[in-house]
Write a structure and sequence with these properties.
14 strands, 15 helices, 8-stranded mixed sheet, alpha/beta, globular, binds nicotinamide-adenine-dinucleotide, 6-stranded parallel sheet
């Protein structure tokens, strides 16, 4: 994809489509969404939900007063405490932020809660959701076993229709799913080996590292690749992972083994991905976009808030099919590729859109309109 083609690609997303009429015809009212944990992922999911024609934010939570509450106030999202503990709720009293109550108060007025708490708090939070009898979505920091169900828009939207609990898979798994599913769907099986080169910390995080080392994950294979099998069990995949001192993006080096007689060429794989939702294919050399730094600059030019890039970026000149082995690199904006997936997941669980491609189209159009793209 050239820069001009990329601009047109974004333009296409703006164009009105019949999906807008489609959703209105079968949605009785808007889905009331609560966000528990208004951090990196929570604030992004909240705005993406706020953008949708068929959803509304009824409240977001914070543990106590902090600068993040200011964004909730600015957006008009009602603020609640992550806990029902009176002492925690009272910490808001001497602040400039109006807290309407504890998490239980919020769960009472919502149809569904998106849990965006730090990873591993799931076993504690799930009890609150079960107690309130509310549908709930966790993020990739939780284990699949917590809900027994996981979600990726392109892999298993239909399996998540009307379920009560699920987990949107991690940013890495979402990235693998986007480019591997179109290949997998051709044959119903695929063998993959990959190495995840992971960012050390998010840009807003001062507590993680490394800052001057390359740190391999010494659990082999790493959990990242096999996590894809929670949404696409037919893909046999293993992974290695290393963390590197960068805050911008993960890069995946992937080798997919295609079946004998696959009939594909390097060019036809590239064409396939160019037609795949939420995947961008660009020539690195031709566009001088040869590293994650330039990709993030492109994302900032694009104009989504926080410089987000919801799409998975594939370097066209980094794709090569040799015999049955397909080699490629892709880059993942870790803070944002899962955001539109959470929106599609809400539609699946509420049973308001059965077709994943229609949901993706509605979600992406609404987000782009929200940010005037
Ligand atoms: P974060 O630390 O940026 O935000 C978490 C928020 O939850 C904070 O505002 C925190 O105050 C709040 N919180 C603390 N205790 C809570 C509780 N008991 N209940 C509810 N909220 C509580 O974390 P994050 O990066 O947004 O990650 C959230 C989830 O999303 C994790 O499961 C993570 O693994 C996953 N995830 C993160 C990324 C990423 O790159 N940041 C990408 C994909 C998925």
């Amino acid at each position: 994809m050239t820069l001009a083609e990329f601009a047109r690609f974004i333009g296409v997303l703006q164009a009105p489509s019949d999906h807008w009429q489609g959703i209105g015809s079968h949605v009785m009212g808007t889905t009331k969404v609560a966000i528990n944990g208004f951090g990196t992922i929570g604030k992004r999911v909240a705005e993406a939900v706020d953008a949708q024609p068929d959803m509304e934010i009824v409240g977001v939570t914070k543990t106590g007063p902090s600068f993040g509450c200011g964004l909730a106030a600015k957006k008009g999202f009602p603020l609640y405490c992550t806990s029902d503990d009176e002492e925690m709720i009272s910490t808001f009293e001497n602040s400039e932020y109006d807290c309407r109550g504890g998490i239980s108060n919020l769960l009472m007025i919502a149809d569904i809660v998106v849990d965006c708490a730090p990873g591993k708090l799931g076993p504690e939070n799930i009890e609150k959701y079960r107690g309130a009898g509310i549908k709930h979505i966790f993020q990739g920091g939780e284990k699949h076993s917590l809900t027994g169900m996981s979600y990726s828009s392109c892999a298993n939207h239909s399996q998540n229709l009307n379920v009560d609990a699920t987990r949107v898979v991690s940013c890495n798994t979402t990235g693998l799913s986007r480019t591997l599913m179109p290949l997998f769907e051709r044959w119903g099986s695929l063998n993959v080996e990959c190495t995840m080169i992971r960012r050390a910390a998010d840009p807003g995080d001062s507590t993680k590292g490394p800052i001057n080392a390359i740190k391999p994950v010494l659990k082999v294979p790493s959990h990242h690749g096999p996590d894809l099998m929670t949404v696409a069990p037919g893909i046999a995949i293993n992974s290695l992972a290393v963390a590197v001192p960068t805050t911008i993006m993960h890069v995946h080096a992937i080798i997919a083994e295609l079946p004998e007689g696959h009939g594909l060429s390097t060019e036809s794989v590239i064409e396939l991905w160019k037609k795949t939702p939420r995947v961008i294919v660009m020539h690195g050399g031709g566009n001088r976009i040869t590293s994650t730094a330039e990709i993030m600059e492109l994302a900032r030019d694009l104009g989504r808030k926080w410089g987000d890039l919801h799409e998975i970026f594939v370097w066209q000149d980094g794709v090569k099919l040799v015999g049955n082995k397909l080699y490629y690199f892709q880059a993942i904006h870790q803070e944002s590729d899962v955001i539109p997936e959470n929106v599609d997941c809400i539609r699946a669980m509420m049973g308001t859109e059965e077709d994943w491609k229609k949901s993706v189209s509605i979600t992406d159009e609404a987000i782009n309109k929200y940010y005037s793209l």
